[in-house]
Structures are given as structure tokens and as C-alpha cells.
Amino acid sequence: MAFKIIHKDKKTNARVGVLSTKKGEIETPFFMPVATKTSVKHISSLDLETMGANAIISNTLVLHLRPGEKLIKKMGGIGKFMNYDGINVTDSGGFQMYSPSIYISSNDKGVWFRNPMSGEKIFITPEKDMDIQLDLGSDVAMCLDCMPLLSNTKEEIRKAIDKTTLWAGRCKEHHDDKQNKKLKDKKQLLFGISQGGVYPDLRKRSCEELLKFDFDGYSIGGLALGETHIQEMKAIEAHKSVIGEDKPAYLMGAGHPVEILEAVSRGVDMFDSRYPTQNARRGTIFTWDGKIKILNKKYESDKGPLDKDCDCKVCKNYSRAYVRHLLREQEGTGLRLASYHNLYFLQRLLEKAKAEIERGEFGKFLKGFKKRWMN
Amino acid sequence: MAFKIIHKDKKTNARVGVLSTKKGEIETPFFMPVATKTSVKHISSLDLETMGANAIISNTLVLHLRPGEKLIKKMGGIGKFMNYDGINVTDSGGFQMYSPSIYISSNDKGVWFRNPMSGEKIFITPEKDMDIQLDLGSDVAMCLDCMPLLSNTKEEIRKAIDKTTLWAGRCKEHHDDKQNKKLKDKKQLLFGISQGGVYPDLRKRSCEELLKFDFDGYSIGGLALGETHIQEMKAIEAHKSVIGEDKPAYLMGAGHPVEILEAVSRGVDMFDSRYPTQNARRGTIFTWDGKIKILNKKYESDKGPLDKDCDCKVCKNYSRAYVRHLLREQEGTGLRLASYHNLYFLQRLLEKAKAEIERGEFGKFLKGFKKRWMN
After folding, report:
1. Predicted complex: ipTM over 0.95
2. Nearest by CB: B332 against A38, A66, A336
3. Is B45 within 8 Å of chain A by CB?
4. Across the interface, which of B75, B317, B326 has its CB nearest the CB of A39?
5. A35 near A58, Cβ under 8 Å?
6. Domain containing A169 — which CATH number?
7. Are B236 and B335 part of one and the same domain?
């Protein structure tokens, strides 16, 4: 089994687990910074080590376009290419069907994208997507999914689920075939992705269809896109009610601290999002007392650290006034310092969550965190 | 005395010295990364420490515009503001008279600039420039100078020298007045700047006029702007022939490795330039065997370090192929890794130069370096 649970919280469904990959083991729950093009924006792999980020996610489709999976394979795979010791996860690119600039159309066979650099049309089938991810050599791969938009009708979402299931089966079959040649402990894990928007009945249906393929984990797709918090949590609960406790659950695209903790309390194990880095670049800084807008005039001569309760190297060395000045000037160093801090904050948040689950006190911690954060 | 020579090379005029500032001592010759807005582009003050960059230069006029010298003073001065332990040098902004986007005009009293953010006109007098630099609290300040363009006639350059001398006297007087209130060992050093373009007679005249003010050091201005190598070296020699050996000489804006070493061999002690960082961002990487254009296709799958003879953290951790990919994608991390390496290279070059001067073998080292670099 690629996943085992080692601690369960007393009053919530939160759990601490261990996911075993070809690169090594990683404790869940964890948050993955987004390294779309093999680099987290302004953050090096050495920074990821010092902040304790033990997994990151990159994008299959984007890397297929540049520099190409063949180059990365030649360089020893994505982890070696970027000299990253943690777990490399890849997203399939299904999410890019949300990107009008590169998505053209899809049919049962696959998806047409337009290469934004060359203008060339490319056709990505589930099989092709698996081949690319195997070449990239990530430790955890995602099935090519068909993600409906929030604005889609229930009927349209039903069709997206049908396609997602069809593709998931083809992904699994092809991925298994290609991996048989390899040693067991060198296998890339493969996760299915459930769809269904905010409709619990559709989410459950999607999960039921995916379950028969026996994936190593099940991702929750098409959320964190603007639905209400209650809708999002109900969809997570629907997913979990079908998938059960023995498989890791990955809520794709969620990066808000409260959203993450609420999902953890429902048994979600993995997270990724641009939220912390994108917010940082725009001057929104995470603190244990909630977000602050560092560009506000009131921080102009603030000699304190970004967060008084943070021990990251940014908080230990730089003032709010200095980071504010650098962000105002759009200096690369400012983007980096703010990004580092926000990512560090999320890593500590998940570490704290794990410790509280082990103590059986996660529910209390969540309540206390929310009170301070939303104050 | 703010400057003393501790080693002299045997066959060239190169020397190792110690410059004493209110922040502490620093060995010469040294190269200063450019931190115009209190940040070297993509490089933090912690990076500057790990690469051994013990001095940096910022820009008085740019900081006057944003965030303003009053804020920086309130934050404890430029060194504290950016949490930098090394020596902070400030340039006066005279060089910005080369910038058509902000320079309007100058007269004997001072210079009119336009604030590019607000459109507002501002008048900078030599006295005002000193006040700003004292507020910034840099360890070494520069006089406001009037820099002629390379294309100016000899007569125009002569007029620029007259104005530079006039302003230098006013800078010195005002700076002395303002500093009398302070303790002797807390004094900001003040350097005069010679002009004269590529004409040795004019350069000498400028130096003779400046000498009477007894500055702590003498900068060589208006070079590294496109003149030939021989013209540049002759101008340096003219400057040194008048100023003599007991004062530090600072060649402003020079950052090419060979140019630096040739100037060192003529008794120049300080350097600064955007050259290493700007080149890095454009994919030109310094190695002990000369520059390489990392964006060239031939480095696409090169697993080697940027420079096989470099022990910087970039060379120890990342491949040419990876840095190339990140630079192609204009990822902040790529700009940073390449900038770090090039700056590290120059720091090691100057350390090596010091060691060779101490051994009395600088001339031989220079010859050997040039042979490899230009190969």
C-alpha cells in the first residue's frame, strides 16, 4: 500500500498518514508550493529545503511545451533536473482546459491545445499525458481529467464526469502497461481526479466510477474556484464518503489557511495552490493573526517582522518597512522575501496541524486558529 | 587616515589597502554590487554575506525619490534598513544627468530632475545632495559631480570640470559643517569625483582642482561608457598621477573582469557596476575560461555547473541546462541564480587579486587570467 494512516484525531476526521513514493516517504497532510515550470516563483530548491517543503507540484502540459519531457528525462527526471530532494507531483494539464488562451476543444479521444509560443495545435490523449508524466519522472502523476466550469449546468458536469471516467480508465491501463517493465519500488504513483462541481450526488457518482480503477490516491478536482465555503466542504465530504479512509485525498488548488484546515478536518491529506505566492507578490502577507496588506501606508516605517510569531529567515532579518519598500519597487528580492514567508507560514501551519492531530486536539486547534485568523 | 596601504605588488602599481569607515574596515581592492534601491536585483543581503560582498553601492537620487531619505533615516540608516552588515556606499546621482528620462538641466547652482513617478520637478544642489546622503547614513558618500558625455567636445568637458570642482568645494564645505556635530569615528567619508573624459590633460586638471579639498578618496568618473580600453587606462593613469598613492581610487561603473584587473594593476582600489547582474539576467555567465552565452542551444542538456572552477552554491547545486531553462522562461529563480554566480565570480576574482598582490605576483596573474578569459 502506498498510503497508511498513523494517527487519527479524536473528534474530527483529520489524520496523519505516510505516503510512500519511489523518492521516499512523506507525512500527510502536506501543502505543495506550485513549481509549474520546475521552479516555484522566486524560490529555489534550496529555499524549499530550508522551509521544509517536502513536496511540490509541476505542470505536465506546460513542461511538455517547454523544455519538453524528453529533455527532462535526459537530465534524470524532474527531481534531478531541479535538484530537489522532496517529492515531485505533476498535474496532468486537465486544469488548462480552464485557460482560454491555450485550450481549443476536447472530444472523447483527448484535448486540443494551442502552443502559445509557436501557435501550433497539439492533441493530448490520456495515453500521451501518461507518457509525458512517465518521462518527467515525477513521483506522483495525475490522470488527465475533464474539469467542468463552476458556471456549467448539471447536465454539462455529468458529461464532464463521463469523460473524466473514460480518460481515467485509459490513463490507468496505459500507465500500468508502461510501468510493468519497471521495478515495483520505482513505480510512479497515479491518482484519479473526481469531478462533479458543487453537486454532492455528481461528486459521489464520479468517485464511484473512479474507484473501480483502484488508483493510489484520489484528487478532488474542480473546487477552490469561487464556490462558497459550504459548497466546497460538502463536495469534499461527498468525495470522502465514497472513497473511504484508506486512500489519500488531495484537494487540488486550495491554499487558503482556513480552507486547508477545514479540509484536513474532513480527512484531506494533500494540498497545492498558487495562493500563498501570488498573494505575497501582491503584498498580502500571512500571519498567525490573519492576513495583512503590507503595501498599506501604515506599515511604511514598521520596524517589526512580517509576523511577530514567525521564525522564518525573512522575519528574523527584515522589517515590514523594508519588504514593503521592495514590493512597491517590484524588486525581485521583495517578491522572493514575501513569497518565502507565506510559504513558510503554510508549512508551519501543516506541521502544527499534524502535531495537533497526534495529540487528538485538532478540532480545538482549528477553532483557535480561525478565531485568531479572522479576528 | 581613512586609508592605508598594507601590501604593494612588485612589478605593477597594484596594492592591497584598508579603508576605515564608521561601519568598520574593508580591504581593497573590492567590487561593489549595485543596490540602486537598497536591493541588488534578485539578491538579498543574506546572499551578499554568503558570497562575501563586503560593500555595495546605492543611489542617492533614486532613494530620495522613493522611499525618501527621511524614512531610511528613521529606520536607522541604509545599512539597518536593508539589514546589511557590509559597507554602504552611495553615489550622488550625478550619473543620472546621463538619463534623458529624468534629467532636465543644470546650472552652477545645481541640477533639475523630473520625478518620473509624480512628474514633479526637483532641484538638487550640492548641499542638498550631501544632506540626503547624510540622512541615508551611508558609510561613504560621493560629491555631486557634473559628468560630461563621451560625445562632448573638449570645451564642453572643460566646463563640466569647472562645475564639478565648484560643486565639490560646496559639497565638502557643507559635509564638513554638518558632520562637525558628530563623533569623529562616526563620520561618513566623502569622495571627490574627477571628470575629464578620455583627455589626460583634462583629467589631471580636474584632479588638481579636487586635491585642494582633501577628500577621503577620489573617484574616477565618466569612464566605462564606451571609450576604448586604452583611452580608459590612460585616463586612470592621468588621475593616479595627480592624486598619488595615499588616497583610495574608485573607478566608477567598471565591472568587466579584465577592465577591473587592468585598473587594479594601475592602483585602483574600488569598483562597482551593473555589468555582472545585467549580463546574468541576459544569460551571459562569467567563468574562469571567459564568458558563455547560456541561452545557446548547445547548453540545452549540459549537466555541468555554470563554471567547473567555481564553488558557489549555484555551481554546486544546479546545471547549466537548468539555469538555461529558467532564464529562457524568465523565472525569478533563474535571474537570481545567474546573478548570484556572476557576482560570486567577481568577488573571488578580487580575492584572488589581493592574494596575488600579497605574493607580489599580480602582473603574472593578470596575464594568465587574460589569456584564459580571452581564449
Report:
1. yes
2. A336
3. yes
4. B326
5. yes
6. 3.20.20.105
7. no
